[in-house]
Amino acid sequence: MNVYHIETRNQFNTVLASLHEHVFSCSYGLGTKLSWDEQYLIESLSDSTIYMAYYTIAHLLQARDSFNEKQLEKSYSLSSTDISHSTLDHLRNEFQYWYPINLYSSEKDLTSNHLIYSLCNHTAIWPNQPEYWPRSFRINGNLLLNSNTISESAGNFITLLEAIEQFSADGICLVLANAGDDSIENADFDENKAKELLLYLYTFIEWI
């Protein structure tokens, strides 16, 4: 699996080495009941990391053209169902066409939980079918504003509309391109630097 950066691979290796200490279930809150002991739940973070598989057939389920309400609400055993073979084949074909995930893009703080759980869930559900495992994880840092964490409560934020009005769409692209490198480090949208770059851009256009 491609993770693009050695820092990301090192983070995954560190988390995997200590994963046996993680608690995967709880007794309250959102989640799926454990099939062998229903007093416990698979906590929502672990339970949600394979939701993208649902996207491959969501349009069919939501259209309700192949299912009726009773079929969607009831549970089925692995050995029997009253859903037609043609419908099940259609769902399978859609899943096999769209899966796996070619690129899973996320921020670095989720490497130690959401992303590693996603990888574990995929390998557990399809242990002998690596063609359904995620093909790559692309991890990025957070976006800072003037070297500080973006926070609405602290007043350190700027809306997209405000940024466009102040720096223009092209100016924002230029500033973001200069805000960070191709790594997992945080990128900094510096407003003073933005004004400086816009002046360079204006001078360049005038010179041309």
Automatic annotation (TrEMBL):
It comes from the Eukaryota. One of its GO terms (biological process) is leucyl-tRNA aminoacylation. It comes from Rotaria sordida. This is Uncharacterized protein. One of its GO terms (molecular function) is leucine-tRNA ligase activity. Belongs to the class-I aminoacyl-tRNA synthetase family. InterPro entries: Leu-tRNA-synth_Ia_arc/euk, Rossmann-like_a/b/a_fold.
